[in-house]
């Protein structure tokens, strides 16, 4: 069976990356691409690297244009997807690459985003440990999927094995991320101009203000063993995180260094075993051999999260360094991987573990 696909926000970075991956997918036909201000223009004018899709023209983003497809991808700015998802009730599968359907807490949405709250959808990070299983199980047969925030999924994948196994204390997580500017989207912004970012590193959203913080807390709370007391508020479960992103002059990539205290009585062998058990059989999330740590260059263009694990006994902390391509594993790759699972297709269809080098 061939599935018809519409991609909104197709002139942006996330939409373009979804299209790049889907262009090589044998089970889909990209029928419709939409945009707002760029509607009416050839797709190739805004995505000149997508030569195989040069025949497509950007349509206006409206519910009527998006309706009538088997699958709709929404690659829109945060707060804009909800107006369309409400009108796509007859669409068999909708995947939102924005934040509108990620959060379960109305209070967190109001504090970090604001505007209308929309119901949470199945979270699109298949390898993420959840109580007793993986998020993959929840994606099977899903009809509504919330693709992750790139920073959020990187940190969550980094630490969820330790939370699930009880080998770290999640009440004192510290993470610092080097982030490429493509994660901020394609809109013209002064702080993202080449003259502003080349030759410098710039912290932003410092002091607990970044919008991905509640998403990380939510994911790590879900990793708690099912025998522990459940709560809708991650803070009630002792999930606390200091999160500092730093904008660096690379167009793509995230390098997240995340640390957490070692749980009392935990051995080094138990710590490493937690991550090996979580990801030892995974294709797209790989734990490097002891003493090795990833570079962002190694995951460029790949749907791969590479991580290195260190045990700092002097500081009594576990250190996890994870590299992803924010536009692939962080966004579009996760969305397509989740689509494959939902539809019962081979999970890795159209996705690669191989990066581009040099």
- Reading the helices and strands in chain order gives EHEHEHEHEHEEEHEHEHEHEEHEEEH
Task: Work out the radius of gyration.
Answer: 20 Å
Most strands sheet: 7 strands, parallel
Count of extended strands: 16
Label the overall shape: globular
Number of helices: 11
pLDDT averaged residue by residue: 95
Enumerate the spans where pLDDT stays under 50 for 5 or more consecutive residues. Answer: none
Q: Which band does the percent of strand residues land in?
A: 15-25%
Strand order of the largest sheet: 3-2-1-4-5-9-6
The CA-CA distance between the termini, in Å, is 38 Å
Q: Structural class, judged by helices and strands?
A: alpha/beta
Helix content: 25-40%
Structure report:
The chain has helices spanning about 15-20, 45, 65, 80-85, 105-110, 135-140, 150-165, 195, 215-220, 270-280, 330-345; strands at about 5-10, 30-35, 60, 70-75, 95, 120-125, 130, 135, 145, 175-180, 200-205, 240-245, 255-260, 285, 305-310, 315-325. With about 350 residues, the protein is an alpha/beta fold. It has a seven-stranded parallel sheet, with helices on one face. A seven-stranded mixed sheet has the order 11-12-10-13-16-15-14. Strand 7 (about 130) and strand 8 (about 135) form a beta hairpin. The chain is globular and about 60 Å long. The two termini are about 40 Å apart.
